[in-house]
Amino acid sequence: MDGVGSFGAGRAGSTIDPIAFAKQPQTILRALSWIFSLVVFASIVNEGYVNLGSERLHCVFNKNADACNYGVFVGLVGLLACSFFFMLDYKFSSISSVKDRKKAIMLEIGFSGFWTFLYFVSFCFLANQWSRTTAAELPLNQGADAARAAIAFSFFSIITWAGLTVRAVQKYLLGTDMSLFTTEHMDGGAPTQPYPSNSVPVGGTTTETSETYQSPPFTENNAAPTYQETYAPNSTGP
């Protein structure tokens, strides 16, 4: 995994390098998923419907409107989701709370895995309906290229979204380096400055504080006098 620290993002608040971010495998997979979703969505919207001598438009996939609607839905939502997670990836290292980072990773795992499954269904559904489409339903082969493009890029999207799921799982399993965070980071609050300690560091030298202890004034001068009794020996004559 790239980077160390909390879920592979390093220390909270660290500086983001745009070039290094763009070269990350997760960023590349995200960009490819965005492009593939755009192709699936645009292919069906622009050329996925044909007019067979009437004002009513028919879906090129065996005249099944559900096939076109499903492809548009998966492509459009996938396109928007890629944009959202792209921004989340860029801002991830600025999230100071470990709990918020964990929630973001779990959200990405759930959505990416679920969208991998939906693209698998899209590929199977569109390919099945296209195989049942006859040449009579597509005069002059209208919309054939768009249908093939939607099917092909649905398959490519399975690979990219599955890769994003694997990357997210790896980040989750990487866990957290707790030395980078304080208790306030764990609770989602702002860190506080600890009080200075006068303890001797291991392998270091002691540091003297600027304040020295002084005895209260007049302690020695006003102390109560002490007396010592002496006993003279009692001598008696003969």
Describe, in plain words, how this protein is organized in 3D.
The protein is an all-alpha fold and 238 residues long. The chain has helices spanning 18-22, 25-47, 65-91, 98-131, 144-174, 183-187; strands spanning 49-51, 57-59. The chain has a two-stranded antiparallel sheet with strand order 1-2. It is elongated and about 60 Å long. The N and C termini lie far apart (109 Å). Mean pLDDT is 77; it is low at 177-195 and 204-213.
Number of strands: 2
- Global Rg: 37 Å
Widest sheet: strand ordering = 1-2
- Measured as a percent range, the helix fraction is 40-55%
Mean pLDDT: 77
Q: Report low-confidence residues grouped into runs of 5 or more.
A: 177-195, 204-213
Main sheet specs:
2 strands, antiparallel
What distance lies between the first and last C-alpha atoms, to the nearest angstrom?
Answer: 109 Å
Overall 3D geometry?
A: elongated
Q: Structural class per helix/strand content?
A: mainly alpha
Number of helices: 6
Order of helices and strands: HHEEHHHH
SSE inventory with pairings:
Blueprint lengths: L17 H5 L2 H23 L1 E3 L5 E3 L5 H27 L6 H34 L12 H31 L8 H5 L51
Antiparallel strand pairs: 1-2
Helix pairs in contact: 2-3, 2-5, 3-4, 4-5
List its traits.
238 residues; mainly alpha; two-stranded antiparallel ribbon
Provide a concise account of the structure shown.
The chain is mostly helical. The chain has helices at residues 18-22, 25-47, 65-91, 98-131, 144-174, 183-187; strands spanning 49-51, 57-59.
